[in-house]
Amino acid sequence: MTVSTEKQQWQSPASLTIYDIKQVDQQMHEPLQKGSWMFDLSALKDLDSTGVQWLMMAQRRLQKRGELLQLVNVQDEIKDIFAVLGVLETLSLKQETNEDD
Amino acid sequence: MIDPVQIFKEEAAEHLHVLETALLELEEHPNDQAQISAAFRAMHTIKGAGGMVGYDHLSYFTHHLETFFDRVRDGRLALTSEKINLVLEARDHIATLLEDPEPSAELMVISETLLRHFRQSESGTAASSAPSQSAPSVAETADEQSCLYRIQIKPHRNAFKDGFDTLPVIRELRSLGPCHVSGYLSPDLLDESFEADTCYLAFTVLLSSQCERAALDDVFMFVQDDWDIQISTIGNDEACRVGDLLVKDGAISPEVLESIIQTQARTGELAQQQGLVDKEQVDRALAEQNYIRQQQKSKQPEEQSIRVPQRKLDSLMDQVGELVILQARVDQLALDLEHEQLASMAEELERLVTNLREITFDIRMLPIGSTFGRFRRLVRDLAQELGKEVELETQGEDTELDKVVLDKLVDPLVHILRNSLDHGIETPQKRIEQGKTGKGLLSLKASHYQGQILIEISDDGAGLDKDRIRSKAIEKGLIREDAQLDNQEIYALIFEPGFSTAAKISDVSGRGVGMDVVRSSIESLQGRVQLESEKGKGTRIRILLPMTLSIIEGLMVAVSNEKYVLPLNLVEECIETSASEISTKNGSRLIKHRNQMVPCLRLRECFSVTGVQPSLEQTVVVRSGDTQLGITVDEVIGNFQTVVRNLGRLYQDTPGVLGATILGDGGIAMILDVGQLAGANDSNKVQTT
């Protein structure tokens, strides 16, 4: 997991499940207080409801400050989970990191 | 009054067809939920309806199959090819049981044997419920309709800590039918109080399913004590306004909604402007609204249909035919009397008769898919019997044909398919040796082609052996040893009576009584059959058929005082020709038409019509299959609704004529068999009479 405050970009680990999410939330709580963010989910392989919930929470935190959270490079398997849980429309997904805002 | 038992038997036969189709699909895709549900419904309906009309044993037997499919549907039982074979056997047994409400002791023993096999195949997992011999309730027998459920899921805050995940639950709900899921965070969640392993997720699920409420409850079996689950149904006529959905979601109270409605503006926008809800909630409610409206729209009552015996439809068609003839007489009378009012009424009558004829035709038309469906079982069973692997591919199932044509088409198609399986497609081992895939492909396609129906049956098997066909034909005395035949002519020999190249006679084919029967059956339907083949690559048989046989749109032509009718769908163009423009080649008359030389025949000569040949004639360019032909006549009269009448035994084999029709003045016009004329013109075989 790497955090880049300059680019406001975060590289997701391979797993965002109940076993990881507490640590991820602690690490990201402060950084997410400033600016808009782009989460690169290209490495993400395992995702459960706690991971989805955390992503939604991160988005809500940013939206409350008038900032944006974008999820990029989302794998099809992960999109499928978003679709099953009915959050695909809620989360802001973008295919490539170099796409225009 | 129609006998309810007869109705039940007809409907049960249809359900058995549905079951068979579903099983054959499931053989390829064992987890296809739609097919599993279709099989379940078929058994459920036969069981219920059978019990109501006194088929108690049948009801008892199908109860077990219903239970079987219920378990498959719930995922408690996996479908294997062994189980599918068993159900197919049971399906055939049900067809036998349908013949008598009180079956013989022997049949009942077969039922018990099959049921024992079912129990054995379920490997110790005995049927979950005891069979009931009583007739089910009316509600149970009614066809299941899908219901739109609204399911509000609020997992317990400790759900994640307790080891539950919402994902499998939602997935299971989705398996019950088309779903719209909205997942969201609890609106009262505050940022500072967020704990990553506490569950703040909630879901609104709109599920369109044929499942009963109990099946939904089963999904929440392990969480129902702790999670807040609200399930309600949404009626088809229930208004679904955003405001109502926001109230149901608990976002606003009914009183607040009412006060907003007073302002007569968009509820969602207003609720958002007033800070009562956020944009996400409004968007979610709008998405739900959209889904519910879509589902409600799709559940509009289906068009009602009634079951009518075929003889009544035949009788209706006969009456329409008589009406068409009468209308032609009225037309003629109006013309003869030069009566303006009568002419106007005749015109109106013609319009009405044309509409009535089209409606009657439409009633008799059936999609060919119903026939194709029967062949899937045939191909499967025969392939197994012959130790071959065959995939049957079908296309154009929606293509419609007159029921009479369709019924008469079944036997020739069965012959062709059996031939393809027996002689065409090789065994897997042989195919692999030849660099092919082990599984052969048998293709059955139907389509519209030049106003007719084209049915193509092709395989990727061994193809026809020209040399063997030729030597067999010489041996049987069908051709001389020095006969010069092209490929088409050699292939056509297999349609000769008594011809067969099969080295051994099998139960399937090879007695040489098949292909000539195929040709005569197709020709009796005024169709044409063509064959193409390539050794080692496969064979393709093309059958061209008219859509209907009883009344056709015709083009009336005249030669001297004789009238003839050409099927209008085959007519391409009418052109003026004079004898001086016509050239000949190899004995055929040719006319120049759109920069091409088209072979041409003069009807006057074909049928030895006496009278003076006009210097300027009319040539009607027609097309039969891939063959273009000019038919030269004295005069083109115009369109004519033609009721096709048989010629009777004495004249039925007249070459070039497929029937006759009665004219408005009581006269007779011959209906020309264009395909036969074209073929005869090719081989110069038209006999003058």
Overview of the structural elements:
The complex is a heterodimer of chains A (101) and B (689). Chain A has 101 residues and is of the alpha/beta class. Chain A has one domain: 2-Layer Sandwich (Transcription Regulator spoIIAA), CATH 3.30.750.24. Chain A contains 3 helices and 7 strands. A 5-stranded mixed sheet of chain A has the order 1-2-4-6-7. Chain A starts with a strand and ends in a 7-residue tail after the last strand. Chain B has 689 residues and is α+β, with helices and mostly antiparallel strands. Chain B has 5 domains: 138 residues, Four Helix Bundle (Hemerythrin (Met), subunit A); 152 residues, no CATH class; 57 residues; 178 residues, 2-Layer Sandwich (Heat Shock Protein 90); 133 residues, OB fold (Dihydrolipoamide Acetyltransferase, E2P) (Beta Barrel). In chain B, strands 14-18-19-17-16-15 form a 6-stranded mixed sheet. In chain B, strands 6-8-9-11-10 form a 5-stranded mixed sheet. In chain B, helix 11 packs antiparallel against helix 12. The C terminus of chain B is likely disordered. At the A-B interface, helix 1 and helix 2 of A face helix 7, strand 2, strand 3 and helix 12 of B.
In short:
The complex is a heterodimer of chains A (101) and B (689). Chain A is an alpha/beta fold.
Features of the shown structure:
heterodimer, A: 101 residues, alpha/beta, Transcription Regulator spoIIAA, five-stranded mixed β-sheet, two-stranded parallel ribbon, 3 helices, 7 strands, 20% strand, globular, B: 689 residues, alpha+beta, Four Helix Bundle (Hemerythrin (Met), subunit A), 5 domains, six-stranded mixed β-sheet, 22 strands, 22% strand, disordered C terminus
Task: Describe the secondary-structure layout.
The complex is a heterodimer of chains A (101) and B (689).
Chain A: E1 2-4, E2 9-11, E3 15-16, H1 21-29, E4 37-40, E5 46-47, H2 49-64, E6 69-72, H3 76-84, E7 93-94
Parallel strand pairs in A: 2-4, 3-5, 4-6, 6-7
Antiparallel strand pairs in A: 1-2
Chain B: H1 4-28, H2 33-52, H3 56-73, H4 81-97, H5 105-121, H6 138-141, E1 147-154, H7 166-174, E2 179-185, E3 201-209, H8 213-219, E4 228-234, H9 242-248, H10 254-261, H11 267-273, H12 279-298, H13 310-337, H14 340-364, E5 365-367, H15 369-386, E6 390-395, E7 400-402, H16 403-424, H17 428-433, E8 440-449, E9 452-459, H18 466-475, H19 487-492, H20 515-524, E10 528-534, E11 538-545, E12 551-559, E13 562-567, E14 571-578, E15 583-585, E16 588-593, E17 596-602, H21 603-606, E18 616-624, E19 627-633, E20 635-643, E21 657-662, E22 668-672, H22 674-683
Parallel strand pairs in B: 6-8, 13-22, 17-19
Antiparallel strand pairs in B: 1-3, 1-4, 2-3, 5-7, 8-9, 9-11, 10-11, 12-13, 12-20, 14-18, 15-16, 16-17, 18-19, 21-22
